[in-house]
Amino acid sequence: MIDSFGVTDVGLVRKLNQDRILIDESVGLFVVADGMGGHSHGEVAAQAALTAIQFYIDSSRDRFDVSWPFGYIFDLSVDANRIATGIQLANRHVRREAEKQPDNAGMGTTVAAVLVSDSHAVVANVGDSRVYLYRDGKLEQVSVDDTWVVSMTEQGLLATHEAKDHPMRNVLTQAAGAKEQVEVHIHERPLEHSDMYLLTSDGLHGVIGDDGIQAILGAGLSLQGTAERLVEASKEKGAPDNISVVLLSYNS
């Protein structure tokens, strides 16, 4: 059984909330999107991405009668292919929306998603919004950060201790809507009793860090109480960006 709760907050500095969240327990879909592009365009990009992903996941419920416009990856499960395709379609949809009006040029959005079916979870992401797994008192980042500092660190061109406070730490290497096709990071794993997944924009993880997140998730609060405490913790540190939190827990 899956229980879930989500909240998004403008924070203490920004005037607009360009984050969007999606919780659709009927299809097991959970998404956080952090839009970018200035003014209200990030909001448009984030909502366009969620609409495209939700539509494809809903229309592909019959897994044996569905089109695969970007091909089928046989090393992945059907559900992993579904969410990967959904995010590729979101990328295409955001690009098309950007082309409709000159003011929308350059808009894009991060996407962090979890698709749950039976006792199996698929985690997918593009950008730096994150998915964490909290299991047996330990926090693990499952998603991959598409950032300049991560790329440089992986290439050995930047030391790990330099990355945390590097002035380019928030520069993305990819986002939905930024190019013709994106690389969707996919991770699959079985669900275990009491697993908790957290999806969040960088308005949370970039402010309170993994240690702060782990402490709050381990405090034994309800899902709603945990989500609200996470937002409050970010605000206690100034909340310079929009804050989005989606939590889901699994009890077999």
Shape summary:
globular
Portion in beta strands: 25-35%
Give the % helix: 25-40%
Oligomer: single chain
Question: How big is the Rg?
Answer: 17 Å
Instruction: Kindly report the name of the CATH homologous superfamily.
Output: PPM-type phosphatase domain
Estimate the mean pLDDT confidence: 92
Number of domains: 1
**Total beta-strand segments:** 11
Would you identify the regions where 5 or more consecutive residues have pLDDT less than 50?
none
CATH class: Alpha Beta
CATH domain topology: Phosphatase 2c, domain 1
Main beta sheet: strand number and arrangement? 6 strands, antiparallel
The assigned structural class equals alpha+beta
What does the secondary structure layout of this molecule look like, with pairings?
Layout (H helix, E strand, L loop, with lengths): L1 E8 L9 E6 L4 E8 L4 H19 L18 H23 L7 E2 L1 E7 L2 E7 L3 E6 L2 E4 L6 H7 L5 H4 L21 E6 L5 E5 L1 H16 L5 H14 L6 E8 L2
Antiparallel strand pairs: 1-11, 2-3, 3-4, 3-5, 5-6, 6-9, 7-8, 7-10, 10-11
Helix pairs in contact: 1-2, 5-6
